[in-house]
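We store amino acids, tokens; thus:
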Amino acid sequence: MSQFFTIHPTDPQQRFINQAVKVIRDGGLIVYPTDSCYALGCQIGNKTAMERMSRIRQTDKNHNFTLVCSDLAEIATYAKVENGAFRLIKSLTPGAYTFILKATHEVPRRLQNPKRKTIGLRVPDHPIAQAILESLAEPLMSSTIIMPGKEMPETDPNIINDLLSKHVDLIIDGGHCGIEPTTIVDMITEPPQIMRQGKGAAFNG
């Protein structure tokens, strides 16, 4: 059975954040709130935790995983960002956007889209997510909690606990954080194209 924490959504208790980070560093898989909806998260280099995430989501080999970053500097470490793309990303972050970009060599190959060599990156606008990222000092490997056969993400921590308590190591209850996934923006195309319209507002690329 997983641990279950209730963390204040705007003023996260540091002792709980520290415990969550320890779970991640020990190779665990967590559920945490973001500015769009709840997500699964694990350490970037942990193959076993990533495989557990894939089994929960039942993703195929072409699935774009997301690196959730604390700021734009981290995005530049893990993705190749041209000046025009950087300006657009800067104008939309932090926020409910996932950007599909060419991965750098810092990204393990198994995390990249096998055909396009891309990775999804985003900077969330949520105090709990940001507190975890600050204490972890590296991005989280992440995926929205959309269960197999469903189109919408799970939003209720208690329902998530019923569904996933045997499959994850920690569930963080951060209250209601929304029902829409992120807006996914393909930054490989010129101009950038919205691949999925979600919570993030439409924009002119």
